[in-house]
Amino acid sequence: MSDGTQKKISRRKSESPRSSSAEQLSPQESALDWQEDLDQILDEIDEVLEENAEEFVKSYVQKGGQ
Amino acid sequence: MAIKKICGIETEYGIIHDGLEEFNPAYSSSVLITSYLAARQEISGAATPRWDFNDEMPGNDARGFLRSDVLSPEMHPQLANAILLNGARYYVDHAHPEMSSPECGDALAAVLYDCAGDVILRQSMDTANAVLPEGESISIYKNNSDGKGNSYGCHENYLMDRSVPFSEVASGVMPHLITRQIYCGAGKVGYETSWEGDATSDATSGFQLTSRADFIEEQIGLETTIKRPIINTRDEPHCDYRRFRRLHVIVGDANMSQVATLLKLGTTAIVLAMIEDDFMTTDIVFDQPVAALRTISRDLSLRKLVPLATGEQVTALDIQWEFYERARKFSDSGGLEHVGEACGQLILDRWEGVLTGLETAPESQAAVVDWVAKYRLVEAYRQRHKLSWENLRLKAFDLQYHDLRLNKGIAYRAGLEKIVSDEAVAEAVSNPPQDTRAYFRGRCLEKFSQHILAANWDSVLFDVGQKYPQRVSLMDPNEGTAETMARLIDNHESPQDLLAHMPGQTSVDL
After folding, report:
1. How far apart are CA B76 and CA B50, in angstroms?
2. pTM value surpassing 0.95
3. Backbone dihedral angles phi then psi of residue B333, each to the nearest 5 degrees
4. Catalytic residue at B435?
5. How high is the ipTM of this complex?
6. A47 to chain B nearest CA, in Å?
């Protein structure tokens, strides 16, 4: 690898393209909405999580594949 | 010269079978698949021809030699092994049910068929559980690790120009495969390995970006089940080996996020096309590739510096920005035609968006990046119940993120963005892609299943009522598309007729 490469990657760090269109690229839901939903989601996870989590984890054994 | 990046995904799913004294995963996987095939045959009347092992040679190494002792257990004719109407292969591989998607024309189509695969596995759970004795049930997980030292894969395949030396492909794509995990990683609770120079203080707890990094032990190699490499050298193109190669990528995680799957396939396809066109102007070489892969996987801040061979210290984001910027220039010079122009633009926009988001506020990517989605939820859950990272409820949480049952899967509750509609996925369950040879395979199976003796990726073997069967070879994955075949298949009611009207395609199979 050349010195030129080294400089090039370093330069990207200081000049990497901070998108001007960041707004349109953000996820659909804002962080605020998420916080409001979080408790509800955690309640639901409490409901669906395997009742005997310990037993479930211990019995989840796979043979190695590719 | 870059060629069209036809691609596909192979997923080995995790399987458990409740209510059994002794669990035999190969048997349970077979029950799962055969129950689905039987139910499908009842509905569609389409028979299920056998898989044709004629073109399998997993011992061929892209570096130019042949390992004669590599005969993978997948080549076992007694286990379920079928071709589906959408052109996919559905079979028992080792000890897992595996779905190999049909050949897809671009990364977005690969997302669609990956989702169709999940639907088929879900339907298979229903068909299997309907025939199993009371008290028994099978459930399926789209993950890559059992948390007990065992890993199983989600592989990607890309069509490549054979004339580009494999060494160039390997060195060119290596830094991408090491760093793309910052948006492709499916996340994992816990660590399972340590290595020389490992700076991770507590090697049994915590959270990391990928489930696969702990199981990658080599830079390059032929193995897929032990000593797994970053670059897999299996040279088994399933098409004309003089013109093509199939790059078999085994380092990735199975994704629940559709956008992550798009980015995994899409960015890699662009990088490979840039390598073929000699468009990469910098050689990025990590000083210790395997250590770099693992170090990046355990750095949730995404700020950790990792050494290149030059001694320069970089972050995974630095390297990804480098690839992204080069890809933008590739786009400006018309390079995206190789990955589908429209799909290519979508990939670039999403790529820029995810890097920008991860750099400024990683949690902003919770709707698109699996590890972020999983981490936010598991961390909130951990705090709510005041659990340590070693608590098995968090491991259960991790497993259930990947549970394919809609009433159990945590990923389905994580607010992940959809980029393909449920309707399109339902369509893809029983219809092949239009723009690859999968079209011919799928349509012939739909229309002439009673006359197909066997099929595989590059051929379909017909019984035409003569002494010898007739093989239709499709040695170019770009052949056999709807454009060239739809009318022929529509207009002929028997395979004899069809074959008589396919100029230059058929050969007698002896």
Report:
1. 12
2. no
3. -95, 15
4. no
5. 0.89
6. 9
